[in-house]
Write a structure and sequence with these properties.
- By secondary structure, the protein is an alpha+beta fold.
- It is built from four helices and six strands.
- The chain has helices spanning 13-28, 32-37, 57-70, 132-142; strands at residues 39-48, 54-55, 74-83, 86-98, 104-117, 123-130.
- It has a six-stranded mixed sheet.
- Strand 5 and strand 6 form a beta hairpin.
Length: 149
């Protein structure tokens, strides 16, 4: 059962899709407070780039503040799949960077999000997977060490 009272009983994934729509606005508008407010208190956010998972709503909020301050990325959404208590999203991170010589370039890195949701309609876990070859090439070209927020 997903989000009691918030879904169409004929299609419980509709509640997850509505949550995703609200959640994605937080990422598009770069709003750490909105993003964190849609996560459970004991949430886990894990960007699988060699860094450790972020645990807890406030830690996630702070993590987002740092990411948004450092990386002015945008999105290209590709495909989304919704279930009663999860969604999977394929997207491309578009990131303007400068190479080690100071020349600007645009990095494009394919991404995959796997998101779990509880019955209260809160994100309990988000795993983000990056295309390793694309991210390594882009970040090496920019002189950014792996695992930096």
């Amino acid at each position: 059962m997903a989000f009691p009272g918030k879904t169409d009983p004929a299609d419980p994934a509709l509640g997850t899709e509505a949550l995703f729509a609200r959640y994605h606005v937080g990422w598009e508008t770069r709003d750490p407070d909105r993003i964190a407010s849609l996560h459970s208190e004991d949430t886990t956010y894990w960007l699988h780039d060699g860094s450790a998972p972020v645990r807890g709503r406030e830690a996630l909020r702070q993590y987002c503040v740092g990411v948004f301050a450092r990386y002015p990325f945008s999105f290209e959404l590709r495909r989304s799949l919704f279930g009663a208590r999860h969604w999977v999203l394929e997207w491309v991170m578009v990131l303007p960077l400068s190479d080690t010589a100071g020349q600007p370039f645009t990095a494009r890195v394919e991404m995959l999000d796997v998101v779990d949701v509880n019955d209260a309609g809160e994100v309990t876990r988000k795993d983000v997977y990056m295309n390793g070859a694309q991210s390594q090439a882009a970040f090496a070209r920019a002189g950014i060490a792996p695992g930096q927020p």
